[in-house]
Amino acid sequence: MDSAPLQDKPTLVGELITLRPFRPGDVDAMAAILADPEVLRLTGSTHSSGDTDRETGLPDDRLRQWYGSRNDQVDRLDLAIIDRDHDRLVGEVVLNDLDPGNESCSIRILIGPAGRNRGLGTEAMRLMVDHAFGTTQLHRLELEVYAFNPRAQRVYQKLGFVHEGRRRAALMFDGERIDAITMSILRPEWEQDRTARRAGQR
Fold first, then answer.
1. pLDDT value at position 53?
2. Helix, strand, coil percentages, rounded to 5, for the chain
């Protein structure tokens, strides 16, 4: 397998969204999205509801450096999710934790308030999964989702991800211990799903 299969930074166009590389002007929108209480909770970035209220939503030097360097990374792919109806950045989808020797990689997504409940996240995940398997030799994509996010679990299952296991009490939030659920999709499963989609079955 190519040791840097994610070095190309494509633009992927769907019906609802466009996935594209990050641009310098995106950091302000991402700072606001990353400060959203629901994003902080669902990504396990905070441990209490009170912590989410203290986020300013303003970019700092660390965040500017982070998003300014995404396109230089050869071992991961970070793409901005653009709502085509409003030409607005609403989140990000990422391939990371690349393991070339095992032909595997992690995938994650986050969507801010302006992009929720309209199918944008589902399409973003579909485009990224299709890109990963369609342009690289990756055999496995994996993700982790917290048990208090059943909606995301249903979306991932719809996209062909299979429940693999559970990391018990992986997150503490508002004094409650939350399990993390691991899911994955393998290349043969994706190929079967793609064939079904082309035949109009899904």
1. 60
2. 35, 30, 30
